[in-house]
Amino acid sequence: MPSLYVPILVTGMLITGSSNSLWSKWQDMQCVENCDNPNPARHVLYEQPVWQTLQMFLGEMLCFLPVIYAWLASRRTQSAVQLPIEAEEEPAAGSKAEITAEHLHGWKILFLWFPAACDLTGTTLMNVGLLYTPVSIYQMTRGALVLFVGVLSVIFLRRRLWLYQWTSLLTVMAGVSLVGFSGSMIKDAVKEDAGFAGVVRASVRFLDDLPPPGRAEEPEVTKVLIGVFFILFAQVFTATQFVVEEKIMARYSVAPLVAVGYEGLFGALTIVLAMPLLAHYSEVSPFFDLPRGWHQMIDTPSVLWSGVVIAISISLFNFFGLSVTRHVSATVRSLTDTCRTLSIWVVSLGLGWERLMWPISLLQVVGFGLLVYGTFLFNSLVRPPAFLRPAIESAPVPSLLVEDAEESRGLLSEHVLDETAALPADLGQSGFDALPPHEHPSGAESALTRR
């Protein structure tokens, strides 16, 4: 492997992963109606989370392109001499029987519609939350996913978590709480700093420049807390998606990029089929006014082209995430995903979307630190404290078990990722693992990547 190949993969995952959230937030800030009005209060920004979810699914559908290219290339280079496939070969005497998963094909592909529905709901809720929160708070709050994945794994997958893992989940929640609280305080402080200037400007405006009558504007702290609630609630659906995917991948074999493409296809079809139904609720919320959102997107080039960029970025992020896990390790993927959150925060500060306000920003730093430590502790990337370590670590391990473990690691590194899928966390969406590496079920490392 060329020396620059791995750094290129890691850099590509970091850039594309960060750009997904940053471009989505920039898209939310675009004015789409009444943009010529001198009163900013009358400007209408692009607030269409359903259309943003559709562009995400279109990006996932682009994952079909490398699959189609590989299929066409294999047909061109197919040799006339055909060797017997491995499934027809008799295993050598004394060798261990391999557990082969049934290939996912035919009508059974529709099983992927269930995780696609969870992905649709979770992504839409997160897009709503992004409207009300700074992009760094949005990205950090998504770290709560590890909590819901862990709990649902225990309930539905009959997994066992060690004491240090439960402790790490509480640490993650403490970090998320601090991040959300600090974000609301910063937004309120920024609003108060601009309050005096706003009063002076408002005093010299004419009556017709005032915003239309209606209910009083919600305070910034309320908006941020509402956004954080939507993002946290979305993690329930995302964690459910992970559990359903693992259930499917434990029984069926499917290439990760193919599964991502199918979920993108099913998600896009669901939104298109639901459009007539959602149109009836356009008066309840502008989020469901899809015809209006269509015209806003088509008539505003910045919104349209940013949607194209987001779709391409999502597809590239899936490719880089899968490649990093396959050619390097899931640990590197987890570290890269953490750096993605940090890079989003730094870029937001550089663009002026957020401000450092001491000592309030210190709470955000502490919350981010707790979030990272809890995630690394849950994934066994850092050594747990002595009083939390499981007793099995200190017990002697029979040499036969050591040989089996080494053999399993060798098989996984060489074959499993080529023939099956791996856990959703292993291939790059979130950077969180439902289990530490030594507890993964053999033969069914299922998974997909996302945003």
Question: Your description of this structure?
Answer:
This protein is mainly alpha-helical and 451 residues long. The chain has one domain. The chain contains 15 helices and four strands. The strands form two sheets. It has a two-stranded antiparallel sheet with strand order 1-2. Strands 3-4 form a two-stranded parallel sheet. α2 packs antiparallel against α10, α6 packs across α9 and α11 packs across α12. The longest helix has 32 residues. The protein is globular. The two termini are 27 Å apart.
Question: What are the defining features of this structure?
Answer:
451 residues, mainly alpha, 63% helix, two-stranded parallel ribbon, 15 helices, globular, two-stranded antiparallel ribbon
Form type: globular
Number of domains: 1
* Rounded radius of gyration (Å): 24 Å
Helical content, roughly? 55-70%
Spatial sequence of strands, sheet with the most strands: 1-2
Q: What is the tally of beta strands?
A: 4
Q: Return residue spans where pLDDT drops below 50 for at least 5 consecutive residues.
A: 80-98, 194-217, 396-436, 440-448
Membrane topology: Multi-pass membrane protein
InterPro entries: EmrE-like (IPR037185), UCP036436 (IPR012404)
Subcellular location: Membrane
GO cellular component, one term: membrane
